[in-house]
Design a protein that fits this description.
Layout (H helix, E strand, L loop, with lengths): L9 E2 L5 H7 L9 H8 L9 H5 L6 H9 L3 H11 L3 H7 L6 H4 L1 H6 L5 H14 L14 E5 L3 H12 L3 E6 L7 H4 L10 H9 L5 E5 L9 H7 L2 E4 L5 E2 L12 E3 H10 L8 E2 L1 E5 L3 H13 L3 E5 L11 H9 L3 E3 L2 E7 L6 E10 L2 E12 L2 E4 L3 E2 L9 E2 L2 E2 L12 E3 L11 H19 L3
Parallel strand pairs: 2-3, 2-5, 3-4, 5-19, 7-15, 9-10, 9-15, 10-11
Antiparallel strand pairs: 1-8, 6-16, 12-13, 13-14, 17-18
Helix pairs in contact: 2-4, 2-9, 4-5, 4-9, 5-9, 6-9, 10-17, 14-15, 15-16
Length: about 450
């Protein structure tokens, strides 16, 4: 359902433009040259660095920090981008507090890690600001590869394939490339259209043609792609949204959080976005946090995150939970939605407390009601249609090794495929590794 301009409790322009601008400013302002040198000086440059093992893309973190410390941030950026071509965005959105920085020796010894994420941003921003693309294409191979989905996995795969000399046709269902980096990341984490700028910068490798408005199953057939190209990589993410399963889910004012965030990311005027006075977000992942915090920043009076399990089981990191709380979001754990009340439109949400036991999650029978004129569902996404001929396990495309689907000539990676954590950095790694496997296969390796 969508919000009507006349929906009581849901309205645009709750805050003055200057307040909205301040609220959606850069969450972590970039380091200046001096700050970067000071931050880099804290690194022990460990020989057997645990931070490298904690990075899904395996960036040589001590090396790039040493390069910053010696005044060569462009070389540091090259070290990062060798492993993670979307290192600029990952520096902004990666949960470094549970990855490289959690493993940092400084964190273990002092409780304050080296600022790896901010240093990564400093290096990659320096290189991109110089208009430099540090990679060149190999001799053309004459091979053509179709990449479906211009999100982190698809972009990473396309860039690596182009660098190897292959010609890549990149397809995406949306009007812009970038995937969740463009449409699904909180606006205060990626300001000044960084996602779009990063895609443009990445495309400087050459050999990649982006086609927007092309969806698999609607505009593209998998068999036709397989026939027309030497290889196919599927990285289209998850476009479907899980149902809430609560009574009244179809009421006006009940929205998918991913669409709410996408609308916010694409608007030129934050004051034009309607937001409820009382907003309840259902879910416990990053999408739930991003939707809740941005609702508060848009001017919602009361914002509550309702998560069915305990705080310790919440997928969003403790840093993100604390960020939400600091912005005035209330977090309610061990509670699940039962029904959305209201006469045609949402007015409240009835929830039931839960407990975890030997039989899994069960309700206690004790209920409570929250006022809610806007309910945002952030309870996970699903494949939007099953690609023909592919095996599906756990709601995702089954893969083995470096993204092989079991169907000759077809690879998959990112959120649409089985694999590790649903993180931007993990998707980049999967796209990169699939590209290497595709290259070896195409070249007879």
């Amino acid at each position: 359902m969508t919000n009507s301009p006349m929906t009581p409790g849901v309205a645009p322009a709750r805050l003055a433009p200057e307040d909205l601008s301040a609220n959606f400013a850069d969450l972590h302002p970039p380091l200046d040259d001096h700050e970067a040198l000071v931050a880099a000086d804290r690194c022990y440059f460990c020989h057997d660095a645990p931070c490298i093992a904690a990075c899904p893309t395996g960036i040589d973190i001590p090396l790039f920090i040493r390069q910053i410390a010696t005044g060569t941030p462009e070389a540091a950026a090259k070290t990062i981008l060798d492993q993670n071509i979307l290192g600029g965005m990952c520096a902004r959105v990666c949960p470094t507090e549970t990855l490289c920085e959690e493993a940092c020796v400084r964190e273990l010894a002092e409780g304050k890690p080296v600022s790896i994420g901010q240093l990564q941003r400093y290096a990659t921003d320096t290189l991109m600001a110089a208009g430099v693309h540090p990679f060149t294409r190999a001799t053309p191979t004459g091979k053509r590869v179709a990449v479906v989905g211009a999100g982190p996995a698809g972009l990473s795969c396309a860039h690596r394939l182009a660098m190897k000399g292959h010609d890549v046709e990149l397809f995406d269902a949306r009007p812009k490339g970038g995937g969740l980096n463009e449409y699904g990341i909180a606006a205060y984490k990626s300001v000044n259209d960084f996602a779009g700028s990063e895609v443009e910068w990445l495309m400087q490798i050459g050999g990649v043609t982006l086609h927007t408005g092309k969806a698999l199953g609607r505009d593209l057939g998998l068999e036709a792609l397989k026939s027309d190209y030497d290889a196919v990589f599927l990285g289209m993410g998850l476009a479907g949204v899980n149902a809430l399963g609560a009574e009244g889910e179809d009421k006006e004012g009940v929205l998918d959080a991913v669409n709410f965030i996408a609308d916010l990311r694409q608007t030129d005027d934050l004051s034009a976005l309607p937001v409820g006075r009382n907003v309840v977000v259902i879910g416990g992942g990053m999408t739930a946090i991003d939707a809740a915090v941005q609702s508060k920043l848009l001017g919602a009076q009361n914002v509550t995150i309702l998560y069915r399990r305990s705080r310790a089981e919440m997928p969003a990191s403790r840093f993100e939970q604390d960020l939400a709380a600091a912005k005035g979001v209330r977090l309610v754990f061990n509670a699940r939605p039962v029904r959305i009340t209201g006469n045609g439109r949402a007015q409240g949400l009835e929830a039931e407390y839960t407990v975890s036991g030997p039989d899994g999650l069960t309700g206690t029978g004790e209920t409570f009601t929250l006022p809610a004129d806007q309910v945002l569902k952030a309870i996970g996404q699903t494949l939007d249609g099953v690609p023909e001929g592919l095996k599906i396990e756990g709601g995702k495309i089954a893969v083995s090794g470096a993204g092989r689907t079991g169907v000759a000539g077809i690879w998959a990676g990112g959120d649409c495929a089985q694999g590790g954590e649903d993180l931007t950095v993990a998707a980049v790694a999967e796209g990169r590794d699939a590209a290497e496997d595709i290259h070896q296969t195409l070249m007879g390796g």
